[in-house]
Write a structure and sequence with these properties.
This protein is an alpha/beta fold. It has helices at 5-8, 12-24, 26-29, 44-49, 108-115, 136-140, 157-168, 175-188, 209-221, 239-254, 268-271, 294-300, 311-319, 327-331, 337-365, 368-381, 391-405, 410-429, 438-461, 463-466, 468-476, 482-511, 518-546, 549-565, 587-591; strands at 55-68, 78-92, 97-101, 122-129, 142-145, 227-231, 258-263, 276-281, 284-290. Residues 1-24 are annotated as: Disordered.
Length: 592
Amino acid sequence: MATSPTSVVPTPEDRTSTTTTTLSNPMEMMKPPHENSTYVAYPVHLQLALYPITLKFEDVVYKVKLEQKGTCCGGTARTKEKTILNGVTGKVFPGEILAMLGPSGSGKTTLLTALGGRLAGNLSGKISYNSRPFSGSMKRRTGFVTQEDVLYPHLTVTETLVFTAMLRLPKTLTQDEKVQHVERVIAELGLTRCQNSMIGGPLFRGISGGEKKRVSIGQEMLINPSLLLLDEPTSGLDSTTAQRIITTIKRLASGGRTVVTTIHQPSSRLYHMFDKLILLSEGSPIYYGPASTAMDYFSSIGFSTSITVNPADLLLDLANGIPPDSMHEYEQGENTEQERKSVRQKLITSYETNISTRLKAELCSQDASKHNHAKDGSIRNVKSEQWCTSWWHQFKVLLLRGVRERRFEAFNRLRIFQVISVAVLAGLLWWHTPTSHIEDRIAMLFFFSVFWGFYPLYNAVFTFPQERRMLIKERSSGMYRLSSYFLARTTGDLPLELALPTAFTFILYWMGGLKPDPATFVLSLLVVLYNVLVAQSLGLAIGAILMDVKQATTLASVTTLVFLIAGGYYIQQIPPFIVWLKFSGCQISGIK
């Protein structure tokens, strides 16, 4: 039986005294409330960085604009606003877990993203962290675990966490301290058994879904976050694995962290592990308060059930507008949409009358100055730096991570076989072409130029779109500069990108019977390599601008087709008004 949240969560007055003690002795915060619990022994620098955060949000409203096409011919598009969040209010203290419950599309993830400072657009309302707005220092103290586990498939669990630690932990920690910290986190999350196993992906098997989720949580635990936000951490997991994940989150909250999580359909055991609950229905809150008293609240306003059910199931039915004991009518289709709207409206009205007014009054009347005095001083004493590590350190770590990630890719071996086989086949077709066959020699040079103009371009187009999710995730956490990522990625790919055309040129040049002069060969090789770099840069630019594989390949096809036609091989006399196309492609320089 889970402990009642009201019996373990201190009152705001108790937290005030607890906070003062914690700040005077940071080691106390890391002590577990139960002697049998096991916690990560964070390095001293990270213990000092952890301080309690009281999260408050009031009347949070988020709207998006939807364009509707005109119904008549020539009609202009009309803009319509859709409300995603409508007046959501709440507060979370250190040591508490706030669960956001609601059906799909109710706005849970949107609210969580807003609380994490990652939501742009038409957002209104007040969100404060220790009575202060979101800032860069708060961003570094916030851990955000997305619903999808965005991880590199070819890295092991240890490598994934070590590279994260190297990028996110401050430079005041040595490399050995960071590695030791990773080992402690692995032990805390129960990942020791699979620490040397690859993450895995769609094409090959790796660790389980629950282990991937714990790796994602571990990436945020490394920074010892004061505020931890999780988006449906139990989605797609079995009940036992979900229980293990929530137990881990509960232990993290007991260490003095403020935890907010969305949850879709928890079991009864999981539900009773949450301290507070927000129930959303189509973006509007219909309950906020202790999770243990939610059933009593809905019974008091006339929504009680005569049977024993999972509280989460009953709450989700209410959020969908289905009153208790009417599930049979809903299955038979007797419960109409109008009736469900009526139930939801009644719940919203009851919330505004019984909860919203009282909650807003508490937020306004609470004297937060004493509660946050010591913490505000801590914030001011922290040097506001945008990055935890230097540019050169980020570049080295990202370069090493990229090499490790792609070291097992069979695609690279396939590319090597592809290039070598094409070079040998072309060498056989143009075997020792005599100088009198000028057309054949020009065709061979044109093949040189076209192949190494198109091949690297299409390979480079996929680079950034394929890593888009990872880039968004890590950049949102402030892990590294965009310039360090770009140069590390291109530098890591450069050896293979230059080695393949070098081997291709060496094979075809001598098999084709071109001028047997070392200087001429070196000059030809430099021209080909220059052609490769230009084409690769163009492909990277197209992929980075569009960030969509389908659109990028379409634009690349059109671009290469124009370069091919206007390259000077098929058409020599181009009309003056369009002759500039002849010099826009990279093939013409390769031929010359």
